Amino acid sequence: MRHIISLIIKFIFVAIFTFSVLGIFNFSIASIFTTALVLTLASYLIGDLLIYRLGSVTAVVADFILYFGMLAVIEYFYFQLPLSRTLYSAFFTSVFITGAEALYHGFVIHRYFEEDDNNRPTPINTSRYSTEFSEELDNPSDKDNEK
């Protein structure tokens, strides 16, 4: 269930940005929807389930590269856009999606995949093992010499 919720949230923001940029070129809604679905599934399987284990920053950078590469290939070969438009639209769409991806990692991954973090060892709080000194531990003969 947690994977389905994560996929739905991810598909929503990927579809919004994909429709926003590719809608400028008057492509059919079904084509843009299919592109958003392919991007979402590939990014979730590769970026969130495999690469996210290396860290959130690594996953966001990998997602940007994945989005840019996939969008460039899809736009150039499937939509047959000129190369300059392909690179610009793929770059801006990837930037927008990657920005949302950072928020996605901060919210969804930590909210729905929290129990995966419970298996990690917790660091020991060393402040409770600190030594305390007081006057009772001082040598009584030293107090007499001070007076």
Automatic annotation (TrEMBL):
Residues 120-147 are annotated as: Disordered. The lineage of its organism: Bacteria, Bacillati, Bacillota, Bacilli, Bacillales. The keyword Oxidoreductase does not apply. InterPro entries: DUF2512 (IPR019649). It comes from the Bacteria. The chain crosses the membrane at residues 7-25, 31-52, 64-81, 87-104. Keywords: Membrane, Transmembrane, Transmembrane helix. Pfam families: DUF2512 (PF10710). Residues 120-132 have a biased composition (Polar residues). This is DUF2512 domain-containing protein.
